[in-house]
Specification:
Layout: H1 2-11, H2 13-29, H3 31-36, H4 48-59, E1 62-71, H5 78-88, E2 93-97, E3 114-122, H6 128-144, E4 149-153, H7 155-189, H8 192-219, H9 224-254, H10 259-286, H11 294-325, H12 341-350, H13 353-367, E5 376-377, H14 389-400, E6 409-413, H15 417-428, E7 436-444, E8 450-456, H16 463-474, E9 481-484, H17 486-520, H18 524-549, H19 554-557, E10 565-566, H20 568-597, H21 602-630, H22 637-669, H23 678-687
Parallel strand pairs: 5-10
Antiparallel strand pairs: 1-3, 1-4, 2-3, 6-8, 6-9, 7-8
Helix pairs in contact: 1-10, 1-11, 2-8, 2-11, 5-6, 7-8, 7-9, 7-21, 8-9, 8-11, 9-10, 9-11, 9-21, 10-11, 10-17, 10-20, 12-21, 12-22, 13-18, 13-22, 16-17, 17-18, 17-20, 18-20, 18-22, 20-21, 20-22, 21-22
Length: 703
């Protein structure tokens, strides 16, 4: 099948190139539409916190909030009342609270030198963006008139600034990663033409990914992080797969095949490896569907799509480019030696497999130890750079206003406000000291719904706030009730992930076992790969906690530690890093199996496999690490965490695992590596996927 695909792309390479050009142009042209359709996503729709949040939204006349701090203003300044009056008259504004409001005592700074405004927008406003702009303009009058310095934020502006910053982070990462990748590719291949092919495939893959995202945005709510994750996966995998195609093409040309023959043979051999690799990575990403949260569904759908696009780009676009430009790709002057540095490294490992295996495994386990003390959080404005206005608003509220900017735990109930008040009086008095900072009077809403705000001591999502959520839920509020708020959403998010993670892992593990079995015919090799990848992932998670939660390397990576890891980051690291680890496992196993099936003993096959794939694996890993490190320049802390984690995962996997642990364990197991029960051997003989035999070259390569 792959051979026929290669023949078709060679014969119609101009048509293939034009099709990809159109796809890329249309894809990048749709990127603005994609960003316009992004929406912030919360936890799973069936959790108590989200059900309560939705009930609160439906019953409240308001939707969206603008919060402003006027630094330097005093509550007595008459200009404040005038601005409050002007704000109330704006279309789309439902309520204005400030220090002069009956319930505005908490909106005056403790030192009396700042005042806050809270502007609630009405439900279903015709043009919410226009209303926000008008609110900003009116508040700006205070700064113009010298009343004080105005800082404007709130949930609507936080999302707007997050979206804008993610766009900037993606652009910066691409501008950094692509030129550096091109330079590295030129050093690898010794020429601009072969180096440029993976870059072209990467750009085309990102363009195709945007087109896919536009389609998914119609069916799913896509979080802004989906675009960034999709972009760097598209870049990394497309470069990865294209590198393998170009390298194998040069190898086939060096063996004396014509351009057309080398292209077809490359599609048959490297294409098979890429197809298996793409399926394993897509399978790992599909494991995200096991989680209930919409953000994971969006990333899973987009991620699987971009993997398939990267595979398609390697098998068709790169094939067509090689057919058109292959005569300008320099072939090796002589075949690559089977006794090079990687073979020597494998031989060194094979002389001492037990010490290498034990020390390597112990080092990885030790590196993973910090994960035992991890703390998670759902970040808000603190994920933005320090200079962003919405973050400055939240910091001013936290540092200078009563309550320290702590978000309350909300009890939403279909019960009268008086009944909810009575329950609160009896319940809060029974809670431990140091748990509750304040209890606000219940507020009646539409449809017989009331909401009670209980402000915890300490941070909005701290241990005290999370325990308060548990205590309030255990106290059974009256009527149909829900405990929600930022702390409750975090608690439910973590519980949902913990309950579904085993199912996600089982799905990914089973699918990976099946795919690797179909490739190798072995039951031992897939199980060993799963164990090694799990240990490697543990080391990555440990490093992630050590750096970002414990606050190491702040000076190097330019971030401010929050003491926690974003809740969604470890899930994505698991899916992406697991998939990429299997990516390199397939690269290596394909060559080891090729040598073993060719008659080489197990140990010799391991040396040959590492020698023939080691340069490709390390080169591909280097390029992927460059792409991921491009995202460590991101100003958004969550993206920085993800970029660092994936760069570390790839680097560790391509060096420590593939070059040390795999040769050591395969040497210890010997021919047992290839064992499978008799029924499975018969199954593989019938359905297993193998390369077609290589035809003899018909003419020497033209240089």
């Amino acid at each position: 099948m792959l051979g026929r695909l290669g023949v078709g792309c060679v014969r119609r390479h101009r048509l293939v190139l034009v099709a990809w050009l159109l796809l890329t142009v249309v894809g990048f042209g749709s990127s603005a539409l994609v960003f316009d359709r992004l929406v912030p996503t919360r936890g799973g729709a069936e959790t108590e916190s989200i059900l309560g949040y939705e009930l609160l939204t439906d019953a409240s006349p308001y939707d969206g909030q603008v919060v402003a701090v006027v630094d330097g203003a005093t509550p007595e300044d008459p200009a404040l009342a005038g601005v409050a009056f002007d704000l109330e008259r704006l279309g789309g504004v439902g309520r204005v609270r400030w220090s002069g409001s009956p319930d505005g005592a908490d909106l005056t700074a403790i030192d009396g030198q700042a005042v806050a405004f809270v502007v609630d927008l009405v439900q279903d406003a015709e043009d919410q963006d226009s209303t926000v702009t008008q609110v900003e303009s009116v508040l700006g009058l205070l700064e113009r008139d010298g009343v004080g310095q105005v800082y404007v934020g709130g949930d609507l502006l936080v999302f707007e600034e997050v979206n804008e910053q993610i766009q900037k982070d993606i652009t910066r990462a691409e501008v950094i990663a692509l030129p550096i990748s091109l330079v590295v590719l030129i050093l690898i291949f010794g020429g601009l033409i072969p180096a440029g092919l993976p870059i072209l495939a990467a750009v085309a893959s990102v363009g195709g990914a945007f087109l896919g995202l536009l389609g998914f945005s119609i069916l799913l709510d896509l979080d802004p992080n989906v675009v960034a994750v999709t972009t760097f996966m598209g870049l990394g995998l497309a470069i990865d797969y294209s590198l393998l195609m170009v390298s194998r093409f040069r190898e086939e040309r060096g063996a004396g095949r014509s351009v057309a023959e080398a292209v077809v043979r490359t599609t048959e051999t490297a294409g098979r490896t890429i197809l298996f690799s793409g399926l394993t990575v897509a399978t790992a990403l599909a494991g995200l569907f096991a989680f209930a949260e919409p953000i994971f569904h969006g990333i899973a759908a987009a991620g699987v799509t971009v993997v398939l696009i990267a595979v398609l780009a390697a098998l068709t676009l790169v094939t067509a480019l090689l057919a058109a430009l292959g005569h300008r790709v320099k072939a090796p002057a002589e075949p690559v030696s089977d006794d090079g540095r990687f073979a020597q490294l494998a031989a060194w490992v094979q002389r001492r497999p037990w010490p290498v295996a034990l020390l390597t495994a112990a080092g990885l386990l030790l590196a993973g130890a910090p994960i035992l003390g991890v703390t998670f959080a759902n970040g808000g404005s603190e994920l933005l750079p320090a200079g962003f206005e919405s973050r400055q608003v939240d910091e001013l509220l936290a540092d200078r206003f009563p309550g320290g900017g702590t978000d309350p735990v909300l009890v939403v109930s279909r019960a009268p406000a008086a009944e909810l008040q009575g329950w609160a009086l009896s319940t809060v008095t029974e809670l431990a000291d140091g748990t509750v900072a304040a209890v606000l009077p219940p507020v009646p809403l539409d449809g017989g719904v009331s909401v009670l705000s209980v402000v915890p001591e300490g941070p909005s999502q701290g241990d005290v706030a999370q325990q308060l959520v548990a205590d309030l839920r255990a106290s059974a509020p009256p009527g149909e009730s829900y405990v929600t708020g930022e702390a409750a959403i975090l608690v439910d998010f973590q519980d949902s992930i913990a309950s579904r993670a085993p199912w996600a892992f089982a799905l990914v593990a089973l699918a990976t076992l099946v795919l690797l079995f179909l490739m190798t015919g072995s039951l031992v090799v897939p199980i060993k790969a799963l164990v090694m990848n799990t240990v490697s992932l543990g080391a990555t998670f440990g490093a992630l906690v050590w750096i970002f939660a414990d606050g190491h390397l702040e000076w190097l990576l330019r971030f401010e530690a929050t003491g926690a890891i974003e809740t969604w980051v470890p899930v994505l690291v698991f899916a992406f890093a697991f998939g990429l680890s299997m990516d390199y496992e397939v690269f290596l196993l394909a060559r080891i199996k090729e040598a073993y099936d060719g008659g080489a003993p197990n140990d010799a096959a391991v040396r040959l496999g590492l020698q023939r794939s080691g340069r490709i694996i390390t080169s591909a890993a280097l390029l992927v690490v460059i792409v991921f490190l491009g995202f460590t320049t991101a100003q958004m802390l969550g993206l920085k965490q993800l970029g660092v984690a994936l760069a570390l995962a790839v680097a560790v996997d391509a060096t420590v695992v593939r070059c040390l642990l795999v040769p050591a364990t395969m040497t210890l197991l010997g021919d047992r590596n290839w064992w499978a029960p008799a029924p499975l051997r018969r199954l593989h003989a019938r359905f297993g996927l193998r390369e077609s035999p290589a035809p003899s070259p018909r003419e020497p390569a033209r240089r």
